[in-house]
Amino acid sequence: MNRDKQLPLTETTYYILLALVEPAHGYLIMQKVEELSEGSVKLAAGTLYGAIENLLKHQWIEAVKSEEKRRKTYVITEAGKAMLHLDAERMQHMLAITERLLQR
């Protein structure tokens, strides 16, 4: 299985990308991540904004125009979606192997 050197994604990065399937600003991203992770991942503002800068650098998310001038809004890019798919495939492969071996 060939893998991108960016994988595996951190849990935080994975959830932020998922949260940005629909455009969102920082506070909404924090809420969505907590909801998607069923409360297991709670982001501090500093962690979120550091992650956003990294995701922008990789071009996995982009800023979009918004009605709210005081808040920056972001959305996942096609490259970001591709990374989510690759990491999901990686995890599915690991789960399949685990299930197969533990059923012995």
H-E order: HEHHEEH
Going by CATH, the homologous superfamily would be: Winged helix-like DNA-binding domain superfamily/Winged helix DNA-binding domain
Q: Rg from C-alpha positions?
A: 15 Å
Provide the domain count: 1
Give the structural class. Answer: mainly alpha
Let me know the largest β-sheet.
3 strands, antiparallel
The CATH architecture comes to Orthogonal Bundle
Strand order of the main beta sheet, please?
Answer: 1-3-2
Polypeptide structure, described:
This protein is mainly alpha-helical and 104 residues long. The chain has a single domain, classed as Winged helix-like DNA-binding domain superfamily/Winged helix DNA-binding domain (Arc Repressor Mutant, subunit A). 57% of the residues lie in helices and 10% in strands. The protein is built from four helices and three strands, in the order H-E-H-H-E-E-H. The chain has a three-stranded antiparallel sheet with strand order 1-3-2. Helix 1 (11-19) packs across helix 2 (26-36). The longest helix is centred in the C-terminal third of the chain and has 25 residues, at 78-102. The protein is elongated. The two termini are 23 Å apart. The model has no long low-confidence stretch (mean pLDDT 94).
